[in-house]
Amino acid sequence: MNNLRRIDLNLLLTLDVLLAEHNVTRAAQRLNFSQPSISVHLAKLREIFDDPLLLPGPRGMRPTARAEALRGPLREALTALEQVVAPSSPFDPAVAEHTWQLAVSDYGEHTIVQPALGKLLLSAPNTRLALVALAPARMAKQLEQGEVDLAFHTLHDSPPSLRHRLLFQERYVLAGRRDHPRLKRRPSLAQFCTLDHVLVSPVGSGFVGVTDEALAQVGLTRRVVLSVPRFQSVLAVLTSTDLVAMLPERLVRGDPALRLYEPPVAVPGFEMAMLWHERSHRDPAHQWLREQLIN
């Protein structure tokens, strides 16, 4: 690295052209420099490499053995540099072979990934998706280090350091099985509090959620008899028991096995966001992926 610090990149470009042309005049024309400027460059190169590099010959200039040894590695190095500084090429999903890592909860998988999956795989048939469990505490680090490409989480709980795009606003509804004996009609607030509820807690051990906070504001409580870590667990419970649940509407909308009601207490919903790190923001492939996952 110390050797590189004392070399002007323009000198290496000049050497590359001189080794191709074997002529100072033609090299000057190709590089749009004056002939004296190319001669100055050559003098500096000879000093740096401690070698004449190019010697006068009957038909132009003849490279020394040292110059011949430099020719191939120098061309490869400059080609690599050209690729580094070249503008990003457009992303072509038809031929791309990416493997994407998405950090998502089972709710996000159901409401965001699954609706977009068919279109995404049809447009990019050689790509693969890996869905990994969302870990909110590690999300920012995972995105920064490239362990995951995108994360899906509630906006108000998302790290402010991350880029984001709001996907939708969600609301809660009361859900129970279609033939639930106590859900023939929308329950009153008092009836709601006496129903047996199941609640989703990320660690499976919490019995208080946003619904309980809303009830507490009016001096009421409900009966939460089961806590589970995943939304999909709730759906299985609802169809096989008389338990009810306050669930995001998008998760259960259109489910023929369930009966849905507006809750008798105002429960705040949430905003769902797609999150990514600045390191990926301008990448054409990443930009394409983000667009595919907007419903």
Automatic annotation (TrEMBL):
Listed SUPFAM superfamilies: Periplasmic binding protein-like II (SSF53850), Winged helix' DNA-binding domain (SSF46785)
Top-rank taxon: Bacteria
Short name of one Pfam family: LysR_substrate
InterPro entries (alphabetical): LysR-type_TF (IPR050389), LysR_HTH_N (IPR000847), LysR_subst-bd (IPR005119), WH-like_DNA-bd_sf (IPR036388), WH_DNA-bd_sf (IPR036390)
GO molecular function: DNA binding; DNA-binding transcription factor activity
Family listed: Belongs to the LysR transcriptional regulatory family.
Protein name in UniProt: LysR family transcriptional regulator
